[in-house]
């Protein structure tokens, strides 16, 4: 699905990612945890094609193609999706209009027929139920006046509508209450299958109560320093990142 | 000088000739004198004149124009908006009503009194004397108009009349060898409890010309006017207009000023809320490109209690275009319980586009609610990235955001054919 090799990224004069390696296979859910400033969001932004990052070394192969060579829109059309940590509000742009434009841009890229307004509305109604959002949300401007939880559910709505093969979820759990966390997790679980992969970036173990991750990675100072199974997340929760640093030191 | 056909003069030459000779004092003597008085005391504004700081009119003053352009019976149809057939239409070519295309009967059927007063009609003084409310406080351009207009279009909607079709003032400028200057003068009065729609559209044949219009609108108590001004002028044209609106008790005016092109546009809009409970909604959208210069200068005077005014002017400026918004709300001592809002938002699409924004409030009453504000910015990179990360191309993302910026104005337009044509303008602008 995606293979990241020796990725080194600088922001202004500071090296943030210092040779990161990660491979995610179809159907896998990988969790990246790490302290603030470790480079988690930089990784998500670089993968989705945000500007302002200077890639100094390494390569990223996504479904057989050079990901770093593609525009952000091409990456989306190739099946990559990022759920934003802070989804931006776009006044004056209707959420449904936006989502339909998005679906049809991807359809067009894949030489598939565009979806008309009626079929789209039917489809979106069923997706709205999955993330427990009222129909009024798709008639409002994108994310405008949405609560934190509504914004995140709107991200998940986009994910299950666009059907990406790789979803990068950047702190999707932050700002969610328990109910919203359950709904979002449910949305992800229902969407999971043997073809679809996920990279979940989080600070906390709590979302993992609802998900079944294949791997937990610890990202410290621009590199993945430890990889384990679900129990690693609990260890981190109990012992903190200093514990990882100490074990690194003792190795 | 009146009928010398192709003779051309700059506005300054005309004013000087006017001050020196009595040739201009034809059948509107007292009004022409008021123009003469103005220019004897004051001249044209300069860049040092406060109200004209951001708009340089010297290109107009230097251009030689033809003034008394007596068109032949127009052989060709005057271009009109697509929705013209749904309207009561008055074609105005180079400042004069194109009589041939005017369907008087349709106005009569709707109960509208339409009176076109031309200089060759004598004994019009009494009619005119009731129509000059806009000249209490003349400016150089209202005085110039006063000196040079050759026709007054007067529309009156009688009390309690609800006009079912919009009234379309289809103003077209057609220069041939020389640039033409038109001094358009329109007086509109809405009787008590009348309801009507006015659409004032400007366009031209692509050449240089100069429209100097004075529009005087009087709304009696409980009258309701939907007003649209659509400026789609040639990109080498000059347009100066003074629109003076006097609102009576509990009258409602919903106005949209839509400016799409023009080399130099200056809209002076003055609204006097002269009756208790009057309501004004005044919206503006400018789509500036190439070297357009578009200036909206708006004065809103709250003179009586319990009036509401709500202004929103949005400028979208590309290339080397320049936008100006100057707004002053004055709340007079008597105007307690005033609710006045004024907002100017500017979106600059290029490094070379620019805007001057100057919203002002002057409050002389204590129990009022007033707000004003101005923002200027560029397209939000974060928002563009968000849309692109969902598969939408950079170009489409940009269009979506610009349309989103305009949406509040577009969505507020009540007359669907204008909303549709605005969307087409916007599409063309974005392509």
Task: Give structural notes.
- The complex is a heterodimer of chains A (251) and B (431).
- Chain A is globular, with a radius of gyration of 18 Å.
- The model of chain A has no long low-confidence stretch (mean pLDDT 93).
- Chain A has a 6-stranded mixed β-sheet, sandwiched between helices. A 4-stranded antiparallel β-sheet of chain A has the order 2-1-4-5, with helices on one face. Chain A has a two-stranded antiparallel sheet with strand order 7-8.
- Chain A has helices at 40-48, 72-77, 95-109, 117-130, 136-139, 148-162, 178-191, 230-239, 241-250, and strands spanning 2-11, 14-24, 29-33, 54-62, 65-66, 80-83, 90-94, 141-142, 166-170, 197-202, 215-220, 223-228.
- In chain A, strand 4 (54-62) and strand 5 form a beta hairpin.
- Chain A is an alpha/beta fold and 251 residues long.
- Chain A has one domain (2-250): Rossmann fold (3-Layer(aba) Sandwich).
- The longest helix of chain A has 15 residues, at 95-109.
- Chain B starts with 10 loop residues before the first helix and ends with a helix.
- Chain B has 9 helices and 19 strands.
- Chain B has helices spanning 11-20, 29-41, 58-62, 104-109, 125-129, 140-148, 381-388, 394-411, 416-430; strands at residues 88-93, 96-97, 113-118, 151-157, 167-173, 180-190, 195-204, 209-219, 224-232, 238-247, 252-261, 264-273, 279-288, 293-302, 308-317, 322-331, 339-348, 354-363, 369-377.
- Chain B folds into 2 domains: 11-381, no CATH class; 382-431, no CATH class.
- The longest helix of chain B has 18 residues, at 394-411.
- In chain B, the strands form 2 sheets. Chain B has a 10-stranded mixed β-sheet, with helices on one face.
- By secondary structure, chain B is α/β, with parallel strands linked by helices.
- Chains A and B meet through helix 2, strand 7 and helix 3 of A and helix 7 and helix 8 of B.
